[in-house]
Amino acid sequence: MLDDFVILRGTANPRLATAVAESLETPLGAVAIERFPDGECSVQLLQTVRHKHVFVIQPTRTDQHLVELLCLVDAARRAAAARITAVIPYLGYSRSDKRGSRREPIAAGMIARMLQSVGVDHLVTLDLHAPQIEGFYHIPVDALTAVPTLCRAIREEEQPPAGMVVVSPDAGRVKTAMEYSRQLDAPVVVLHKRRQSDVALEITHVVGDVRGRPCLIIDDMISTGGTLARAIDALFREGATEPILIAATHGPLLDDARRKLDYPTVKRVLVTDTIGASISDWPGWRIVSVSELLATAIRCIARGESLRELF
């Protein structure tokens, strides 16, 4: 029953959590979150959650947000919540899913152990950087995708140009690119890259025909913008034409990402509000909300219904 659940939110993305609660026509749970002078987190639940299913909505873009989430979950568990589902739209440290060399951590596995140890019974997230991250968890994981939401926005508001191709920035995003291809009825082109360091890379091959065709470049996230900028350069060297569309689920937008992507041929950059970053003075930047997707997932989970249609 929907009366038996409570939605709690942290401070990482209050706007998204509020939108989810409004879609579910339920108030957010009352929580007090403060910071001590030394930066430590103080959390207190201001209402009962005893024997209720608690959903905690909190992306973990920063370490501070992660600790806040852990505190919220621990507080709910100690307050006798019946079940705790962590709704983490952006799961931090997902890029650390394996060791690149010796003497390195696998941080994605470490985060999984932390979440489970404090009492998370179920994880809901969006577009993991690597699908195998689910294997680090011994609890149910629903890794949803924002691709249908982004494709709907592209079809209804961006009006895909004739002849458009979907571009995967590397081999790891081919499966996602195929889903965009299916929903937008467009062929797929794949870029091959050689990474020189954590921030430096080179596009070595463009597999597919882009000559005289506009492109939709897709990715799971936009951080520094370096990969996408090099992808745009490589596509135009192969004869691609404007406009260029970019679509990604997560948009941390670090450093000078805007400058790197400020091409006159880039018509639109679409990201969802999993993190909540916003650039008000960039006309090409557009936020697509995943609040309805998350609300539907929470409703189904609370009722014990299948999430099959969301996949």
Could you characterize what this model shows?
The protein is α/β, with parallel strands linked by helices. Helix content is 29%, strand content 25%. The chain is built from 8 helices and 14 strands. It has helices at residues 14-23, 63-78, 107-118, 147-158, 174-184, 226-237, 257-261, 291-303, and strands at 5-9, 31-35, 41-45, 53-57, 83-88, 122-126, 141-144, 165-168, 188-195, 201-207, 215-221, 244-250, 266-272, 285-288. Helix 1 crosses helix 8 (291-303) and helix 4 packs across helix 5 (174-184). The longest helix has 16 residues, at 63-78.
Main sheet overview: 7 strands, mixed
Which regions have little confidence, pLDDT < 50, spanning 5+ residues? none
Trace the largest sheet across and list its strands.
10-9-8-11-12-13-14
Instruction: Give the beta-strand count.
Output: 14
Mean pLDDT: 92
Q: How much strand?
A: 25-35%
Task: Output the number of helix runs.
Answer: 8
Sheet/helix structural class:
alpha/beta
Shape: globular
Give a quick rundown of the structure.
The chain is α/β, with parallel strands linked by helices and 311 residues long. It has helices at residues 14-23, 63-78, 107-118, 147-158, 174-184, 226-237, 257-261, 291-303, and strands at residues 5-9, 31-35, 41-45, 53-57, 83-88, 122-126, 141-144, 165-168, 188-195, 201-207, 215-221, 244-250, 266-272, 285-288.
